[in-house]
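Bump. Still looking for ATP synthase subunit a structure tokens.
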Amino acid sequence: MMASLFSSFDPSTNLGMSFNWMSAYIGMLMIPFSFWLIPSRMNILWTKITLTLHKEFKVLIGKDKIKGSTLIFIALFSLILFNNFLGLFPYIFTSSSHMIFTLTLALPLWLSFMIYGWINNTTHMLAHLVPQGTPPILMPFMVCIETISNIIRPGTLAVRLSANMIAGHLLMTLLGNTGPSLSIMLLNFLIITQILLLILESAVSIIQAYVFTVLSTLYSSEVN
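Sorry for the wait, here they are.
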């Protein structure tokens, strides 16, 4: 039962270069070029979203930092959001529910922030290990705690995103598997429940993409 349940997250092919992972980019590649040139409701909505994210990330990172530094985080938000939404469609591989995808996004970002911070702002990074107002007797313990907290950051980012994607898909799979054994009345109730759950998962897709990006932005602001 458990093997068949989690098999919904397995790639459908075992080729050396599986086309399943192309779903991570195919959603953005399928957007017609005219979408960015011809004004439309969706184009205006997406422009407003990106401008809002740009203003928020600019505040988190700092206005005096490198111009255009928010672009990488807006692109990261777009990539995760497209993958989360594509995973809600039938027969589309959900790449954001796999640790190999989420950790590939989180680990290089965290490593780049740490390397940049320890090379250029060594004193600040050392001072960040001991919060202000910590009693001297607790300083060695706080250094250990803060060090462990920094090390597990990419893991928590990756696990949070993949776990939330897996939880919703498993619940929809469980409800869908009970459909053939239900009566007509219960089947109608199940369909309504699935629709409501799909709306909830759409909201979770947006929230998790936003949380992943905001936390990455906060991590980058700590090294400056």
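The chain has a mean pLDDT of 80.

Edit: fixed formatting.
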